């Protein structure tokens, strides 16, 4: 039987496979309802966020006009049960975070700061009365929160060296100090502020109502090169008076703060995995379409080698994060588990996005092609929620039995 070629016709080129960052089909481990939510989030990010995000990233601005439609996704308090929260497994929480970061890490960070750090502080360390008062409105995104732990001169040393202080005067606490790199701070409604109690030298948490508290001010941090859509602020507290009713009743030492950080550190693992997913898919699509020497560069050996290495990093991180989520759902997640995931995934993310930037050549430094944004944003995730070295020391203590901290 004659082929198309022998019949004097040219065979139609075989269509290129669509870029798919879920190489091991991990999404099939979700329930049908979970899959539907993840698909809903992906559709939203692709249709609403992707068309505008590069401009906002370049302008160092946040797309506030998207908040009403984003709220309709019902993601507030995902992974938390009760109090109007979205509920669901930690596996679902992770897949949603990965989907958000697949399009934009800044949007994922905005979500994580509010729904993970701020709501998580109240959920894990708040009294029943505080949970009832704050969490339903936060779950509906009527009150947006931030998380104030890092300071201008204190990053890795927050466990024992906070300079922000709290002094009790009757039923009121007086806060003084500064917080820096606080996502959502320039515009949110409430801030979770961690301060050192002058009476017992222990770290305690406070709910500060930004817009109605004298002595509380925020200055937006300008000229960032990463996570430019997230609005980070430097908070100054000058004799800020907070009622005892707004002190997190379960937040009485850094051990309580660490419970929140354990959860959010592995969220950063999901976010850095999502960045790799977005960078890989954007890079593959570019390689399939970009022609050199009359052929798509995706047909070249060196390009395929880089793409395979990108996919290997991405898939390894996805599998690691999936197991971590299972441990959390089983109540077995430890600080050392979260620390290893945060360190490994953010490190691999830097490697993955650098290979993507390499494939794109000169276009790899232009925001329009998306990879440049992933390339820059990966740097921020590598540092925040605890540096790579600090995470490794947490792991090192767990596996050797010896603490190597100063």
TrEMBL record:
Protein known as: Acyl-CoA dehydrogenase
Pfam families xrefs: Acyl-CoA_dh_1, Acyl-CoA_dh_M, Acyl-CoA_dh_N
Residue span, Acyl-CoA dehydrogenase/oxidase N-terminal domain: 31-140
Ranges for domain Acyl-CoA dehydrogenase/oxidase C-terminal: 258-399
Residue ranges of domain Acyl-CoA oxidase/dehydrogenase middle in the record: 146-240
Domain of life: Bacteria
Organism the protein comes from: Bradyrhizobium rifense
Entry keyword annotation includes GTP-binding: no
InterPro entries xref list: ACX4-like, Acyl-CoA_DH_CS, Acyl-CoA_Oxase/DH_mid-dom, Acyl-CoA_Oxase/DH_mid-dom_sf, AcylCo_DH-like_C, AcylCo_DH/oxidase_C, AcylCoA_DH/ox_N, AcylCoA_DH/ox_N_sf
GO terms, biological process: fatty acid beta-oxidation
Cofactor(s) listed in the protein's UniProt record: FAD
Keywords: FAD, Flavoprotein, Oxidoreductase
Similarity remark: Belongs to the acyl-CoA dehydrogenase family.
Listed Gene3D superfamilies: Acyl-CoA dehydrogenase/oxidase, N-terminal domain (1.10.540.10), Butyryl-CoA Dehydrogenase, subunit A, domain 2 (2.40.110.10), Butyryl-CoA Dehydrogenase, subunit A, domain 3 (1.20.140.10)
GO MF entry, a single one: flavin adenine dinucleotide binding
């Amino acid at each position: 039987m004659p082929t198309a070629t022998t019949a004097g016709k040219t065979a139609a080129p075989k269509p290129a496979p669509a870029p798919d960052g879920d190489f091991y089909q991990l999404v099939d481990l979700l329930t049908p309802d979970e899959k539907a939510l993840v698909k809903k989030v992906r559709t939203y990010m692709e249709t609403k966020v992707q068309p505008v995000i590069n401009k906002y990233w370049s302008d160092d601005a946040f797309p506030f006009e998207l908040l009403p439609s984003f709220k309709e996704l019902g993601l507030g308090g995902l992974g938390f049960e009760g109090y109007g929260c979205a509920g669901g497994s930690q596996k679902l929480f992770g897949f949603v975070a990965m989907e958000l970061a697949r399009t934009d890490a800044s949007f994922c960070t905005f979500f994580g700061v509010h729904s993970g750090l701020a709501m998580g502080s109240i959920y894990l360390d708040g009294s029943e009365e505080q949970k009832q008062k704050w969490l339903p409105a936060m779950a509906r995104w009527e009150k947006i929160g931030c998380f104030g732990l890092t300071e201008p001169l204190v990053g890795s040393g927050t466990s024992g060296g906070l300079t922000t202080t709290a002094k009790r005067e009757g039923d009121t606490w007086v806060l003084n100090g500064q917080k820096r790199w606080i996502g959502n701070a320039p515009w949110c409604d409430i801030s979770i502020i961690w301060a050192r109690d002058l009476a017992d030298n222990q770290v305690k948490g406070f709910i500060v109502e930004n817009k109605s508290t004298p002595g509380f001010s925020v200055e937006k941090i300008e000229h960032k090169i990463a996570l430019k859509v997230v609005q980070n602020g430097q908070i100054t507290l000058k004799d800020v008076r907070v009622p005892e009713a707004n002190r997190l009743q379960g937040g009485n030492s850094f051990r309580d703060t660490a419970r929140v950080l354990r959860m959010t550190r592995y969220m950063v693992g999901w976010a850095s995995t999502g960045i790799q997913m977005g960078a890989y898919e954007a890079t593959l699509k570019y390689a399939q379409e970009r022609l050199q020497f009359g052929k798509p560069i995706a047909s070249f050996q060196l390009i395929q080698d880089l793409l395979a290495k990108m996919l290997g990093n991405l898939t390894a991180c996805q599998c690691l994060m999936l197991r971590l989520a299972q441990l959390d759902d089983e109540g077995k997640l430890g600080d050392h588990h979260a620390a290893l995931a945060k360190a490994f995934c953010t490190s691999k993310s830097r490697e993955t996005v650098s290979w993507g930037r390499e494939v794109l050549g000169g276009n790899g430094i232009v925001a329009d092609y998306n990879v440049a944004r992933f390339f820059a944003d990966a740097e921020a995730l590598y540092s925040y929620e605890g540096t790579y070295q600090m995470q490794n020391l947490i792991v090192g203590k767990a596996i050797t039995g010896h603490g190597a901290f100063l």
